[in-house]
Amino acid sequence: MIPNDFIQTLLTRVDIVEVVDRYVPLKKAGANYVACCPFHSEKTPSFSVSPTKQFYHCFGCGAHGTAIGFLMEHAGKTFPDAVEELARDSGLEVPRIERAGDKERREETDDLNELLLAAAKFYRGCLKDAPQAIDYLKGRGLTGEIAARFGIGYAREGWQNLAEVFPNYNDVALEAAGLVISGDGGKRYDRFRERVMFPIHDTRGRVIGFGGRVVGAGEPKYLNSPETPVFSKGRELYGLYLARSAIRDAGKVVVVEGYMDVVALAQHGVECAVATLGTATTPVHAQKLFRLTDTVVFCFDGDAAGRKAAWRALENTLPVLADGKNALFLFLPDGEDPDDFVRQRGKAAFERAIAKAVPLSEFLLAELAARHPPTSSEGRAALVAAARPMLGEIAAPVLAAILRRRLGELSGLPESELRDLLQVAGETAGGTPSPRGRLNNDGRAPRTGGFRAQVRRPPSLARQLIRGLLLQPALAKSLPFPRPDERTPEAATLTALVAFCAEAGGLLTTAGVLQAFAGTSHAAVLGSVLATAEDQHLDDVAIAAEVKDGLDRWWQQARRDGAPAPMSADTAPAEETSRVQQLDYVRRREAERNTPPIADVSDGRPAEGAAS
Ligand SMILES: [Zn+2]
What is the 59 CA–ligand 1 centroid distance (Å)? Predict the structure, then answer.
């Protein structure tokens, strides 16, 4: 674990322009540096790097981040590796928090990895002497070469075969690794028996578990390792380690449901496939995949179960989607899995099917319209009500706008009206066209009785506050920022941002805050707000004044809507006090600017050790 304070300090010492320029030659353009975007193909530069905000942003595909983010996204480094490299360049040493038990835990997982690797070798060796398993694999059209590449093995029949590799068969670590089961009366036996074994690797190529496919009859047909200290099915994807470079080359990843699908696709030349391990796609899965590539194709059976699984994948992908990232859905003809499909029709047919995969936006609206046919007023209202929470999950502003427009077409409502409905439908007391609003007319108190849900502001005000806070995070400690509980992405981001900046210790910078939110559902909003903040006007006093003005307008509006302002006493001082504080703050900043403290270094960044 790397302490957050260190990340913040590191980002004040690093120059993102220098870091990016090592990989992508930059040209000066006004206050910024520009280049053709390394994350999407283009002829005219829309990739911009800001030396003042220490942040890059592409106006074409929406890619954005800090120097750390750039090394991760562009150079494919892990977070710790990116931090390590930047720290080395800046002459800093990365401190690590070793929490109680960390060392023991690390040693334990190292041990488990070793046990699992030994088991994988053993199973692989057993495959040669298992004609029934070899017949099964050959029947599936696999060559020995592919079987070797995926490390496929065989677990023989018998209860304690692993005792051959592990003389201390009673070692509790074997149980912790998920290899051995301790039954009633303490009798221990191998978890996997009479199964073709598919080792599961983590992103560093270490064996962390197994999937076992029964040969012949027997239940269950597929058996995976249990959750262990090194294996979690909600985080891991089968085949990802082997597919990494193919995914980058293909510019996409295909997500299937079984390990045989992954292996069969690779056998037929589709090497960019991975599989979930007996679970629906989780947000962690989606995030992992979108780190590697812009296009994720979810491939499912066309039957009811397949559509249900696809819907789960869609729900879990929404919060991690950024503009420029595409999720596509491919439904195979009824009863066919990718293994059957590619074996019978070949690679070209599979590629053609992928080319016709349905974009997430289309699948989302088609499915919602099928559930709530917009053929009556009630149906249209139900459609909007069902779409509302899903649209609220989307952090990608362009995609959200497109979906709103399409939803407007479907429901026959003009976008302006729809926008209002999507923000407050079901939240206000009676009188809204949503079914929930009507239910409230029976005299029960509305679901959210307070003024908060009714307080609505143009999104530009929330964005203005987000921008001010991003440029000067310390303002959160001195000014009464609201924490709105509306469910628009911007309101949610403002709430999270205020909480983070108000509570964070140490020195906060724009890049530091951005890095803290990297990979969260707020990252896209922060990126798009920051991208539109003009570098030449980054004057501390001007920002503080603008933020203060925005807050005044916010609280005035809140008061008009019947709210006491500021909204809650625990997060903000009384209004009069806060006004005095604001003035004080602005004056203090003005004074600071006129007489720079000695500690300031020439580039205007805080001096060494300022964070500690
Ligand atoms: Zn781009």
Answer: 7
Report residue 382 CA to chain centroid gap. 29
Question: Which amino acid is present at 35?
Answer: A
With beta carbons less than 8 A apart as the criterion, state whether 452 and 485 touch: yes
The token duo for 378 is: 């009630």
Ligand 1 centroid distance, CA of 62 (Å): 6
How far is the centre of ligand 1, averaged over its atoms, from the C-alpha of 38 (Å)? 6
pLDDT (0 to 100) of residue 19:
93
pLDDT given for residue 453 in this prediction: 33
Report the C-alpha gap between 314 and 152 in whole angstroms: 31
CA of 26 to the centre of ligand 1 (A): 14
Q: Is 186 exposed, middle or buried (0-12, 13-18, 19+ CB in 10 A)?
A: exposed
Please give the distance, rounded to the nearest whole angstrom, from the Cα atom of residue 64 to the centre of ligand 1.
9
Q: Which residues pair with 207 in a beta bridge?
A: 201
What number of residues does the chain have?
A: 612
Query: Ligand 1 centre from 41 Cα, in Å?
Result: 7
* d(CA 285, ligand 1 centre) in Å: 23
pTM > 0.70: no
Q: Which of 444-458, 464-478, 483-497, 574-588 comes out lowest in average pLDDT?
A: 444-458
Least confident of 6-10, 46-50, 184-188, 561-565: 561-565
